[in-house]
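Sync notes, pocket subgroup
Present: LS, DG
LS reminded everyone that the earlier model was apo-only. Rerun requested with 5'-deoxyadenosine included. Inputs:
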Amino acid sequence: MEKISVNKAVLPEEIDRQKSYINRIKEKNQRFCDENGFRKQAFIMTLGCQQNEADSERLAGMAEAMGYEISDKPDNAYLILVNTCAIREHAEKRALSIVGQYKHIKAKNPELIIGICGCMVVQEHRIQDIKMRYPYVDILFGTSSLHKFPELLFEKMQRGKRILRPDEKEYLVAEGLPVRRESSYRAWVSVMYGCNNFCSYCIVPYVRGRERSREMSEIVNEVKELVADGYKDITLLGQNVNSYGKDSGKEYDFADLLSELDKIEGDYLIHFMTSHPKDASRRLIDVMASSKHIARQFHLPMQSGSDRVLKLMNRRYDFEKYIGIVDYIREKMPEATITSDIIVGFPDESDEDFEKTLDALRRAKFDMIFSFIYSPRKGTPASEMKNQISPEVKQERFERLLKTQNEISLASNKPYEGKTVRVLCDGRSKNNNEVFCGRTEGGKIVLFDGDDGLEGRFINIEIERGDTFALYGKIKK
Ligand code: 5AD
Ligand code: SF4
């Protein structure tokens, strides 16, 4: 696949041009509303990572500005967007199956416009697939065309023809698009887009382009506004936040950005993800340790504990270097939580390699891990490697990985018993309406008996029990 390398911002004139399309669609939608007595609904389905969540909030912001009412159900929608993910095969299959279900909605309402966007539809073979097998899909646009959504939708409305747009080869930073945030107290803020690392298993650099950072002043202003609006928890997003600023030849880096943000006054926490171990600097950890608002939480994907596999993965660190960072974080911030990503069944991973990953888990004592079965991605080097691992072996290793980590997670949660932790309340738990849930500064899930009205507020919880996946407690009076 082609490697793209461009690094600049979308011109303000271009954003204004898109805004003019927003206004023209708004006029059309207003006429529809006047004639029919109701507003058209839009439904946005998001798959994949937090970056996609953040992108969907922009899409929803644009749709709302066009006069759509944002709905949480697709059934009565006049606009459906599926924001897709390509990281593993499962995510792609899910996206296609969801799109398949919308065929019936379209049959009932021929005016419905269905769009697919995001990482999956940057890949040529997927574009072709949708062209042929999903004739009722009206618009398709990749990650680099997100800001052009108004223009594409307007064209579709005006001309009625399908617009299956291959991704632009230019990946830019787009500022000034409207945003409709899902939460009134937790927010995403992208600090950079794309990735330069080309880990051999990963599709991201091919579907999100090269690294490009937002201007520090833009980020600082956005966070200031969020804090002023009462946001309590802000997560900075980037595929590799540690290389923030490097692409644009700026004088500042990610540690500087954190120090700058930490100066903003208010009662709030800043999280960030994801850090690449090859670039996680001691200075960054020092800045966190001396900060007031930067949460003591590190998501540091290790991927494998075997140096041989790490080399095949093109991760550019070995276990020695990795564990050195973990030890330094613990030395400076003993209370910090550390989480990680692990892939099992990478091509040529031997039993011995896998045992090294288990040993690494025992040594690193992560609070939690996100574990993945290796999924070959078309166009990436690893998908062409010899000795692909059988599904049975992958599954067996995956289960052993979970079992080992579950014991470690339990051991990491036990010491919380009897302690009081500060928790940002998320209201009633989605799994059990009777209990309330929230998260600690380190991102641990806490379940407790609460009251309505606490959502979005920091509260102190006395922990009575620490279990594998959550802490249980009661509100401290
Ligand atoms: N197969 C399985 N897991 C993957 N990840 C990225 N690409 C793949 C793949 N092809 C995992 C990595 C990464 C996380 C976001 O997804 O662990 O850190
Ligand atoms: Fe993928 Fe590696 Fe970039 Fe993460 S750092 S997005 S795993 S290529």
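DG: The pocket of iron/sulfur cluster (ligand 2) is lined by residues 195, 197-199, 202, 204-205, 239-240, 276 (CB under 6 Å).
LS: The radius of gyration is 23 Å.
Action: DG to write up.
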